[in-house]
Amino acid sequence: MKIQKATLHDLDALTELFDLYRLFYQQKSDLEGARGFLKERLTNEESRVFIAYDNQNPVGFVQLYPTFSSVSMKRSWLLNDLYVKEEVRGQGVGGNLLKEAIHFAESTGAKGVLLETTEDNKKAQRLYEKVGFKKESNYFYYFSI
């Protein structure tokens, strides 16, 4: 397995994975929309994406968005998207993508990597904790539109 920073050269492979990711979250397939969204993120350097290949076969990706902490005066990274193809789950792809995200954050001098998941996503929670993420217990998260 090879994990690399995604570039526009990886756009077709990444688009397929991103569409599958969205389908996992009960969204309608939209390859054109996915391609445009990802192309804009990569072109404008608005996110950092790492893609995993098994030989030449794209099998997963992780996408990080920058954020900042005023209190610590440091950058942090929001791990917004993580997806591994169903047929290769349990083979270490997700863990390796998470480790790559953490390594990248460390290399940028970031305060850390933040992610969120649903309360019932126990499989993902076990994976996150296995690679070193800690569940926050002293923060509440609010959302408004």
From TrEMBL:
Gene3D superfamilies: 3.40.630.30. PROSITE patterns: GNAT. Coiled coil: none annotated. It comes from the Bacteria. Pfam families: Acetyltransf_1. It comes from Neobacillus novalis. This is GNAT family N-acetyltransferase. Keywords: Acyltransferase, Transferase. GO terms for molecular function: acyltransferase activity, transferring groups other than amino-acyl groups. InterPro entries: Acyl_CoA_acyltransferase, Bact_Acetyltransf, GNAT_dom. Residues 1-145 form the N-acetyltransferase domain.
